Amino acid sequence: MTIAMPLPDGATIARRDAIVAALRDIVPGEGVIDDPIAMRAYDCDGLTAYRQTPLVVALPETTAQVSAILRWCFDNGVKVVPRGSGTSLSGGALPMADAVLVVMSKFDRVLDVDYGDRVAVVQPGVTNLAVTRAVEEAGFYYAPDPSSQIACSIGGNVAENAGGVHCLKYGLTTNNVLGAEIVLMDGEVLRIGGRQLDPAGLDLIGVVVGSEGLLGMVTEVTVRILPKPETARALLIGFATIEDAGRCVADVIAAGIIPAGMELMDRPAIHAAEAFVRVGYPLDVEALLIVEVDGPPAECDHLIAEIDTIAVASGAVSCRASQDEGERLGFWAGRKAAFPAAGRLSPDYICMDGTIPRRRLPEVLNRIGEMSVRYGLRVANVFHAGDGNLHPLIMYDAEIDGQLEAAEAFGSDILRLCVEVGGVLSGEHGIGIEKRDLMPVMFSETDLMHQQRLKCAFDPALLLNPGKVFPQLHRCAELGRMHVHRGQVPFPDLPRF
């Protein structure tokens, strides 16, 4: 393992009994887990290559308990790692040996649904799919739909700014969250945003969504719900080359069509998904593009015809449109199962997450293929093609010496390539520990220091989720110190105190 975490603080570990006792006073009953065997259930998140047993696990049930836990830890200089359902693929919820792991799984209620305002107020432990389940009887749904939506929690979606197959048209989590209740490290409870689309003041919701547990702990979320489209249809389009599929993606968007979803899979991913769920994917193609449109039936019929014409012009060798809802869901079942299906191909894999301009898709996929040969590791590509969000699945065997390190290096090269062609390090999984040491590839030292200043405004003691996102975390006092350049201070004419 090449990713290093901060060395545990021995003094904190020596106080473990006192910390556990204090937490039991705040969260009585079964709200504290300190048995080393029981805590192993929390020793990693979805990035399972990295594991660490936490100091202690707390499972609060109320905002007051979260506030009291954070306040006590703040007063006593104890670090805290927030955790939702643990499906993070970037190591964002990796525990630390000297930190309290605060798990929000008991915050699992839908508090309010307002169809007039088209919002739902939910606790952070509610799963993504459960929001849709709570409102679907009235003809509504929650648009962001990560592949892990059956398990991932809304709080984790907020932390990582999760996406999904329908985010091309309807946006990521940040576009669908209107308000939140957040507890700061010192225990203060804030309400930011609200039920309205454009609240007054600074866009603190935009700051909190995607902050990866570095600024505070979310205890309530207000999300947008949308009326379910009248009709949804999908196209399953096969291509002889990945380049043709990439060109089709760009041509569809260039034609002014914004599908509800646009997903691309290469041959290894197609075969793995079909063997896993058997939904009738063509096995004689190199790339499979799934395009969904929604809206009134007449509009869907028109767009299906338009996309079919574009696909044929781009070199499609097969094109099949869903004829009913069951067939449409079948098209998506394979894509949604692509990640677990990859587990049939290899004992271990790392799911990468980077975003590139759509027009660079063919070039980037070819270069990933070259890297695969160079590293001697297989890769299956599954990604949100419409917005250029890549998910290469790098397959390796952790029991073979050197393969994990090779997979890490392979993944780093993919992310460097994403930045090189004008993209970014993450499209939806976040930075966590996986991409932490690559942040200087995308950001200058000045950029990173300004981001850290924002963290200091929320968490001046730097106790929340340490070791994540920033490759080198400066103390807040260091970020605010006077910079002297060649013996000159800024604005030398101003009096100094």
UniProtKB/TrEMBL annotation:
- Top-level taxon of the source organism: Bacteria
Return the broad EC class. Answer: oxidoreductase
Q: Which Gene3D superfamilies match?
A: 3.30.465.10, 3.30.70.2740, Vanillyl-alcohol Oxidase, Chain A, domain 4
Q: What is its EC number?
A: 1.1.3.15
The FAD-binding PCMH-type domain covers which part of the protein? 50-228
* Names of required cofactors: FAD
Against SUPFAM superfamilies, the record matches this protein to: FAD-binding/transporter-associated domain-like, FAD-linked oxidases, C-terminal domain
Keyword annotations for this protein, in alphabetical order, are:
FAD, Flavoprotein, Oxidoreductase
* Cross-referenced InterPro entries: FAD-bd_oxidored_4_C (IPR004113), FAD-bd_PCMH (IPR016166), FAD-bd_PCMH-like_sf (IPR036318), FAD-bd_PCMH_sub2 (IPR016169), FAD-linked_Oxase-like_C (IPR016164), FAD-linked_OxidoTrans_Type4 (IPR051914), Oxid_FAD_bind_N (IPR006094), Vanillyl_alc_oxidase_C-sub2 (IPR016171)
Gene Ontology molecular function, alphabetical: (S)-2-hydroxy-acid oxidase activity; FAD binding
Q: Kindly give the PANTHER family that the UniProt entry links to this protein.
A: GLYCOLATE OXIDASE SUBUNIT GLCD
Protein name listed in UniProt: Glycolate oxidase
The source organism is Sphingomonas jinjuensis
